[in-house]
Design a protein that fits this description.
Layout (H helix, E strand, L loop, with lengths): L2 E10 L11 E10 L2 E7 L5 H6 L2 E4 L4 E4 L1 E3 L11 H8 L4 H6 L4 H10 L2 H16 L3 E7 L6 H17 L3 E9 L10 H17 L5 E4 L8 H13 L5 E4 L7 H7 L4 E4 L5 H10 L2 E4 L1 H6 L8 H6 L4 E3 L13 H10 L5 H7 L2 H6 L16 E4 L5 H5 L6 E6 L2 E2 L1
Parallel strand pairs: 1-4, 1-5, 6-7, 7-8, 8-9, 10-11, 11-12, 12-13
Antiparallel strand pairs: 1-2, 2-3, 5-14, 14-15, 15-16
Bound molecules: N-(iminomethyl)-L-glutamic acid (NIG) and fe (iii) ion (FE).
Length: 404
């Protein structure tokens, strides 16, 4: 197997229980064997064997290395855009007004259904490349704009196709219970039946890594959400939830009862929900892009999450309606400026905790045995990644041991 060596870097290892903030190792070396990290530590302790065996050597001259970034909540694949609704909102309409008037998610459903799989891929590719240009090596992509077997399958297949065509690992989430499609208007329970019919069929085809739902007064009730969770459980699929984004409907506590990998948004989360998440080990995925774009004023309860030991992740929520955002670095900044996370919490949110939100144990930190997914940055300190606004100091991505 090929051995590659990165020397004289500052390694933000993000390891749990590290003595230094960010698990930072100054003047570090990283040895990669094949697609795995083989050794990570101070230059002074680098075993001779790695130096002797290395086929390639990269002297980083003090540059920072972090784990590959993980965007753990996106709706990357959709047809069209909603710039017109942006204008409507600037004219005074609210996100919920637009949704109730048949716009919002429903308008993206029309455009997504009208697109072929290759058209969907072509429209989403620039968004994916933008994320990857900032060091994203793992991305979660949700369905949820197809809302029928045919179109949900098309979306999930397209997501999987990205994972084979581009140097990025794609995790797919079935979000059939995202909105009510027009043909089920006024019949939400019947549509939930339809979601329960789609789920095993799509799962059989290997298209689903996790199951999500939108539990909200403009979407599905806790009871309807629970039916989806039960079905996911029967198939052995992990669940996650769009919870407490616009109101407190108790979604987080419900998701926690099903051992949810994550609960996402959470601006309206209360103490009970936070405590339940803490006990269940669910990650809180914070989405500052949606908070900003919808001009929300209610902050997610970060102090409560900290108090209950809930790990926090940070993601773009890339979608056409509430967060048309393709910069995870910008989300680091917004998580700090808007939500008051520390830069260390924010960086954990796009590395170790984002991996946890996807149920992945083989990435999110720099340690021997993990996947060799990492990023070399033209900065010296990890906080610089969260500090800059609209600046990309990316130098090099290594994906599964491959230098891109
Ligand atoms: O995460 N909350 C539900 N879904 C998306 C928004 C979808 C849309 O408006 O198109 C979100 O914010
Ligand atoms: Fe979302």
């Amino acid at each position: 197997m090929t051995v590659q060596l990165w020397t004289h870097c500052r390694a933000a290892t993000m390891q749990a229980g590290a003595a230094q903030p960010y698990g930072l190792v100054e003047d570090a070396a990283i040895a990669v064997e094949g697609d795995r990290l083989a050794w990570v530590g101070p230059m002074s302790e680098l075993p001779e064997t790695w130096r002797d065996r290395s086929d390639a050597l990269y002297d980083c001259a003090g540059a920072l290395i972090t784990p590959g970034l993980i965007d753990c909540h996106t709706h990357l694949l959709y047809g069209g855009d909603r710039a017109n609704e942006f204008e409507l909102r600037l004219g005074g309409a609210s996100y919920e007004d637009i949704a109730r008037a048949g716009g919002g998610i429903a308008s993206t459903v029309r455009a997504t259904r009208a697109a072929t799989e290759s058209e969907l891929l072509a429209q989403a590719l620039p968004r994916l490349l933008a994320l990857m240009s900032e060091g994203v090596t793992t991305i979660e992509i949700k369905s949820g704009y197809g809302l029928s077997l045919e179109h949900e399958r098309k979306t999930l297949r397209a997501a999987r196709a990205f994972g084979t065509r581009e140097p990025v690992d794609v995790r797919t989430t079935f979000l059939g219970a995202h909105a009510l499609p027009p043909e089920f208007s006024g019949r939400p329970d019947d549509y939930i039946e339809e979601v329960l019919r789609m789920l095993p069929l799509l799962h059989e085809q290997g298209l689903i890594d996790a199951v999500d739902a939108f539990c909200e007064r403009i979407a599905f009730s806790p009871a309807q959400t629970e039916r989806v969770f039960e079905a996911a459980h029967r198939l052995g699929l992990p669940v996650k939830l769009h919870a407490e984004q616009l109101s407190d409907s108790g979604g987080a506590a419900l998701a926690a009862r099903y051992g949810a990998l994550s609960c996402d948004h959470l601006e309206w989360l209360g103490e009970e929900g936070a405590a339940a998440m803490g006990r269940a080990g669910s990650v809180a995925v914070l989405l500052p892009g949606a908070f900003y774009f919808l001009r929300e004023t209610r902050l997610p309860p970060v102090a409560l999450l900290r108090a209950h030991g809930v790990p926090m992740a940070v993601s773009t929520d890339c979608n056409p309606g509430s967060s048309p955002c393709t910069s995870l670095l910008l989300m680091l900044n917004m998580a700090c400026t808007l939500f008051r996370l520390t830069p260390e919490e924010a960086l954990l949110g796009v590395t170790r905790h984002a991996a946890q939100a996807l149920g992945l144990r083989d990435r999110g930190a720099l340690a021997a045995g993990l996947r060799a997914d990492f990023v070399v940055w033209d900065v010296e300190r990890p906080a610089q990644l969260a500090y800059a606004i609209g600046f990309n100091p990316h130098r090099q991505t290594v994906f599964c041991g491959r230098v891109l």
